[in-house]
Amino acid sequence: MELKEQILAYLSEIDGKTLSNSEEVEEFRIAWLGRKGILKDTMAAFKAAPNDQKRELGQLVNQLKNAAEGLVAKGAQGDEGGESTNEILNDWTRPDGGIPLGAHHPLSVVRREIIGILERMGFVVTEGPEIEDDWHVFSGLNFPEEHPARDMQDTFFVDRKPDMLLRTHTSSVQVREMERRDPPMRIMMPGRVFRNEAISARAHCMFHQIEGLYIDEGVSFADLKQTLLRFAQEFFGADTKIRLRPSYFPFTEPSAEVDVYWGLKTEVDKRITKGTGWLEILGCGMVDPAVLEASGIDSRKYSGFAFGMGVERIAMLKYQIGDLRAFFESDMRFLNQFQGEY
Ligand code: DAH
Q1: What is the 3-state secondary structure (H, E, C) of 96-131?
Q2: Model pTM?
């Protein structure tokens, strides 16, 4: 066969060819472009051809080389099955491949559980705004102007509106509710809160609290203690121990912080309880009469208790999570561990 006809035959062979998987591509590459391949032979024949045919033959050889290389490149791209992504997506008869199921976020799971326990004790869910004024977050809760108590909570203020801020605690909703309705009231207030804090394994600029408030005639500190003990035993198990440590909050008197005893079974227990086995889960106290009065409630007739707990802390203890940041990073490897939790 003349060299020219030979090349034309090769060209039409490549033209009709499809390579359906990577093995075929590799086979083709060796046969056509390899060191002892068809293209090498063709080049040798081309060199031996008469000079006056070189121009025309040269072009054909180039064409052949491009066609062979093009096929290898295309075959390697389309890869398995040789179908392009588009062809697969355009096939409306294809099976759907299943829809991946999500999981409840651990904070939602814990929040739901806490709300469920408090609901069974007669507390009703109420909500308030995340962007609040100074009165509801501080002044109405007995934080005096210029008093260092305000420094307990690093606040994000709204630009050019110094009176508006992101609430630093859900206690702000207590004030709204006491202004809005008359006792008796037994309410809980879940929500997001914000603090201008450096983010670390133990602190974040945004987290969640659940606030409780009970106001009626004759509410005592004993009622508060029993409510919290009951709550802890429902949540952590029937033999859970709690302890109350005297503390200070501007809006309660007396005030206390509540720790639950979790023990020191694991490394994470040690880390999050700072080696004591006790973990603080909430602040509480008897609502200061000045706070009741500021919201228009007669403090000679009514008394009440309040508490506020951190959802993240409780979730960390329950699920043995050593780093607070895990809750907010949306890492699927973390979140998928909660499949089936409700
Ligand atoms: N608001 C407090 C905080 O964010 C927690 C708290 C303490 C809430 C005592 C209360 C309470 O209702 O009585 O640190």
Answers
A1: CCCCCCCCCCHHHHHHHHHHHHHHHCCCEECCCCCE
A2: 0.72
